[in-house]
Amino acid sequence: MLIKVRTSADLPYSKVTPEPVYRSRREFIKTTAAGAAGVIAGTIAAGGCSAPSAAQAALPPAKKWPLSADPAVDAPNTVEQITGFTNFFEFGESKDDPIRYADRMKIAPWTVKVDGLVDKPADYGIESLVDFKQLEERVYRHRCVEGWSMVMPWIGVPLSSVIAKVQPKSTAKFVEFTTLNRPSEMPGIGTAGIKFPYIEGLRLDEAMHPLTLMVVGLYGKVLPNQTGAPLRVHIPWKYGFKSAKSIVRIRFTDTQPHTTWPAEYGEAYGFYANVNPTVDHPSWSQARERRLPNPLKIRTTQMFNGYGDQVASLYKGMDLRKFY
């Protein structure tokens, strides 16, 4: 059972403007299969690119998570801002490449291979992993390692509920996520200069933490392709690159996974990637951040992205400058 402690890191749900009309799970599947998650229309200021259509498939009603911070400080970004400025290297290195090219990605049918140290390995359909009757809408801060931040109203379920279904063995200590690797639909794979498929991972206790969310939607509708459709994770106290998108494999292991960015540039990107203003990137300070859409809105970076009262105990006794 999810127990939510109201803290200053949260936002009031009343300040979010969710889509007013919800449809059935059947329509979610039908419209996703038709590629509605890739529909784009309009133009936005946060990057000068296209935004998803309002006709995108609606999700079943989501439980409104109790939230409680000052909306003047952490007002949610619009769907256009969130979807028009993002990192998804499989589509390109520019922040507007994902929205330009992600409609090429086919998201139905979609299966997720679950394997490794788990009692119920299998290829799972999305509805086998995610209970759409238990969806929650949570407004989370998102902090990118490059220094920009947003506030996002994700729809999903606690990752712990997914993990419970597949029953990891007692020897499992880590969970690894692998992203879709389909060069014919993802033009960035041939140009980004990093090894694919993209791999991320968490310690099992991090994955089981109540804040860690398996995401299927945004603002009441299915995820647009450029934000990680149809299935991604979000870990709000870590830098954004930890939140694997378009997940096709979940593997349980007793050893720390070899994840993409530590392998590519370990001096800058550690396995833990906890938001930490005292640990700088080799090229810039992490002490400040730019809250988009206004890049001139400079804020002081909070330890653990403001969620320290809920997650700091996970790292008790660890040297967070060494385990960055």
Gyration radius (Cα, Å) is: 18 Å
Q: Into how many domains do the coordinates divide?
A: 1
Q: Mind describing the biggest β-sheet?
A: 8 strands, mixed
Helicity, in percent? 10-25%
Count of helices? 8
What is the strand content?
15-25%
Describe this entry's structure for a reader:
The model is unreliable at 1-54 (pLDDT under 50). It is built from eight helices and 15 strands. Helices cover 14% and strands 22% of the residues. The strands form three sheets. Strands 3, 6, 7, 10, 11, 12, 14 and 15 form an eight-stranded mixed sheet that branches. It has a five-stranded mixed sheet with strand order 5-4-13-8-9. The longest helix is centred in the first third of the chain and has 9 residues, at 25-33. The protein has a single domain, classed as Sulfite Oxidase, Chain A, domain 2, CATH 3.90.420. By secondary structure, the chain is an alpha+beta fold. The protein has helices at 25-33, 79-84, 97-101, 126-129, 159-166, 204-207, 260-265, 308-311; strands at residues 40-41, 51-52, 63-64, 111-116, 122-125, 136-143, 148-158, 174-179, 199-203, 213-218, 221-222, 232-234, 247-253, 288-291, 298-300. The chain is globular and about 45 Å long.
Q: What are the key terms here?
A:
Sulfite Oxidase, Chain A, domain 2; 8-stranded mixed beta sheet; disordered N terminus; 5-stranded mixed beta sheet; single chain; alpha+beta
